[in-house]
């Protein structure tokens, strides 16, 4: 049995690791990005701002904003901020399939992690490849914690405990000075397996379908275009990459395919719709005492709380040292971030001439605009409190205190880098993939990455993507 996995990112590498536990199962792992080899360079172990060749060139068609996605073995897990938050049970229970309830996903969440503080709890793992820890907090973050407490929030020691809400240290997979990406933590576990073949620097152009079944992929590498044959193909090229490959393979909305002269293999009108992303707002303030700066992104204190409304609408808040993400920020700047992590708005990915066209659609739903103004106001009150304590200085005209906050939020909306949902999974017939992640209408073709999530979890998406990759391997091994 030979499986070709396209994309060696969070989900793809996890899938390859689990699937190749069986020495009789040949796995070919293809990625357009490079494999830096066993000695992972320092920048990929620690840095968040990396040279351009480590990213795909996606931008939001509506705003022009750069939408970074990792193009390297490890995928986006190798370029991310390493916050390791799972989300609540109800995030997964809402996916509409018993196969994906939180209870059903929990064994995979446990298998992929080695949690340094809570590894032996029932809902954690201690032996998986991805180390997770929580840091002692800086004086600035502790002051923020006091402020959260005064505003009615409770402390939570473990944000990954089921249903945890409140403030506490970020769980992070940045451990002992290294980002525990799948590149660093998973790839070394499969390099020595003789039945695993790694094909770096190889961009997959399309899946070859014959007689209604996938029989391989066409890729382009330094030598030109080739066919790699397969008994089954798993696409793990990410929320933007996977639908692009499906489009080029003749799977997508039939009208759009015909208009682009792509022969239709199967009509999948849902492909590219349902794009969902957390929206983030950032308030930059000056820290008064430069010896007490906030911690880098994903390592300080995280606050999670619910908003009024049905179905647990939720927000996050945290502060980090602004130069972490923005080299032009002054060294004494704190970025205070507020994020809406239960967006109603949906964007779209459509067939383009070169790369697919992406519109995140942030705040396109009126309810999100109301909630955005609400969370920014709450965050602004907390920042005012810190200013009253003399810990921070506000800018002269803070954008978050203008007259039309709703309009200001539209102008200030940023991606939290958590797009999902373009190949939505559903138990019934209306998703791109079924609950076993098989592409509807084509035998031997599955999707395993963040694109299958029907809704975005109320959390960072890396652990969820890895969980999906791990579980996809158990389905594919059958
Ligand atoms: C800047 C940034 C910060 C983030 N911070 C966090 C964080 O702190 N915590 C968190 O949980 N999440 C974070 N995320 C999100 C998280 O990293 C992603 O949700 C997750 O990595 C997605 O996994 P994936 O497997 O779906 O895709 P990816 O990990 O992106 O993997 C896709 C892989 O497919 C390859 N590929 C794509 N197209 C092709 C093709 N045609 N041929 C061959 N290969 C192809 C890519 O090169 C890539 O290696 C962040 C993301 C970014 C970009």
Automatic annotation (TrEMBL):
FAD binds at residues 72, 204. One of its GO terms (molecular function) is oxidoreductase activity, acting on CH-OH group of donors. Its cofactor is FAD. The active site is at 418 (proton donor), 460 (proton acceptor). Pfam families: GMC_oxred_C, GMC_oxred_N. Keywords: FAD, Flavoprotein. It comes from the Bacteria. SUPFAM superfamilies: FAD-linked reductases, C-terminal domain (SSF54373), FAD/NAD(P)-binding domain (SSF51905). Substrate binds at residue 416. Residues 238-252 form the Glucose-methanol-choline oxidoreductase N-terminal domain. Belongs to the GMC oxidoreductase family. This is GMC family oxidoreductase. It comes from Streptomyces phaeofaciens.
């Amino acid at each position: 049995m030979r499986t070709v996995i396209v994309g060696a990112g969070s989900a793809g590498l996890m899938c390859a690791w689990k699937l190749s536990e069986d020495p009789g199962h040949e796995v070919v792992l293809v990625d357009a990005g490079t494999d830096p080899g066993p000695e992972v360079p320092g920048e990929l172990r620690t840095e968040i701002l990396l040279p351009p060749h480590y990213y795909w060139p996606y931008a939001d068609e509506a705003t022009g904003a750069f939408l970074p996605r990792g193009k390297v073995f490890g995928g986006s897990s190798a370029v991310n901020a390493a916050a390791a938050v799972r989300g609540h049970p109800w995030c997964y229970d809402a996916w509409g399939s018993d196969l994906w309830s939180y209870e059903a996903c929990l064994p995979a969440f446990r298998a992929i992690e080695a949690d340094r503080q809570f590894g032996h709890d029932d809902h954690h793992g201690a032996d998986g490849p991805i180390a997770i820890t929580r840091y002692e907090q800086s004086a600035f973050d502790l002051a923020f914690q006091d402020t959260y407490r005064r505003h009615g929030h409770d402390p939570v020691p473990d944000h990954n405990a089921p249903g945890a809400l409140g403030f506490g240290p970020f769980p992070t997979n940045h451990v002992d000075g290294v980002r525990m990406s799948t590149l660093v933590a998973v790839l070394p576990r499969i390099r020595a397996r003789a039945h695993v073949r790694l094909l770096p620097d190889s961009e997959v152009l399309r899946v070859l379908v014959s007689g209604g079944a996938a029989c391989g992929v066409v890729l382009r590498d330094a030598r030109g275009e080739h066919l790699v044959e397969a008994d089954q193909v798993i696409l793990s090229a990410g929320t933007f990459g996977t639908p692009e490959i499906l489009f080029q393979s003749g799977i997508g909305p039939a009208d759009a395919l015909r208009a682009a002269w792509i022969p239709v293999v199967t009509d999948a009108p849902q492909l590219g719709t349902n794009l969902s992303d957390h929206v983030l707002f950032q308030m930059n303030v000056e820290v008064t005492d430069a010896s007490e700066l906030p911690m880098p992104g994903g390592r300080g204190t995280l606050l999670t709380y619910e908003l009024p409304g049905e179905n647990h609408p939720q927000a996050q808040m945290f502060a980090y040292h602004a130069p972490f993400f923005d080299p032009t920020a002054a060294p004494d700047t704190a970025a205070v971030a507020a994020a809406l992590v239960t967006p109603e708005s949906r964007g779209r990915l459509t067939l383009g001439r070169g790369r697919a066209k992406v519109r995140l659609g942030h705040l396109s739903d009126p309810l999100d605009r109301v909630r955005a103004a609400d969370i920014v106001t709450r965050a602004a009150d907390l920042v005012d409190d810190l200013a009253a304590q003399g810990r921070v200085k506000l800018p002269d005209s803070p954008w978050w205190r203008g007259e039309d906050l709703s309009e200001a939020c539209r102008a200030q909306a940023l991606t939290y880098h958590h797009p999902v949902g373009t190949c939505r999974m559903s138990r019934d017939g209306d998703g791109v993939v079924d609950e076993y992640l098989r592409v509807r209408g084509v035998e031997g073709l599955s999707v395993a990455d963040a694109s299958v999530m029907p809704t975005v979890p109320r959390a960072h998406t890396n652990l969820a993507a890895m969980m999906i990759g791990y579980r996809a391997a158990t389905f594919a091994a059958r």
